[in-house]
Specification:
Layout: H1 2-19, H2 25-77, H3 86-96, H4 107-119
Helix pairs in contact: 1-2, 2-4
Length: about 130
């Protein structure tokens, strides 16, 4: 954002100064000042980008771990004993700790849910 715009502005000013050379120590001082300011701004931008990247990397690791745990839990829902009647549904609900949820979803549902989370379409299904 703002840091990138500031760095670009300094580089543009430096390029304009180099394109119009002048004689004398004032010109050299101006080039030195613009170069130092540009380098400092670029270094600050790089540091900021690295910090942002590190934060995103940590968030990605956390989300991956949570998704793996959630996927394992969803796959566990399909392990409940199969059979006709309400007793198998009650056993499935008791196995997950979620009474009254009905029949267990298939692993394919978990895979589709995970894919929707990754491609961003899961948000479209939520009520506004």
């Amino acid at each position: 954002g703002a840091r990138l715009a500031a760095a670009r502005a300094l580089v543009t000013r430096l390029a304009a100064a180099v394109a119009a050379p002048q004689a004398g120590p004032a010109y050299i001082a101006t080039l030195t000042r613009l170069m130092d300011a540009g380098e400092a701004e670029i270094a600050g931008l790089k540091q900021s980008q690295r910090a942002d990247f590190d934060a995103l990397l940590m968030e990605e690791r956390d989300l991956t771990r949570e998704l793996e745990q959630f996927t394992a839990r969803m796959e566990g829902w399909d392990i409940a004993p199969a059979g006709p009647g309400p007793s198998s549904q009650a056993a499935a609900a008791g196995a997950t700790g979620s009474p009254g949820k009905g029949a267990a979803p298939r692993p394919r549902v978990a895979e589709k849910a995970a894919q929707r989370l990754f491609d961003g379409t899961a948000q479209k299904d939520l009520p506004a």
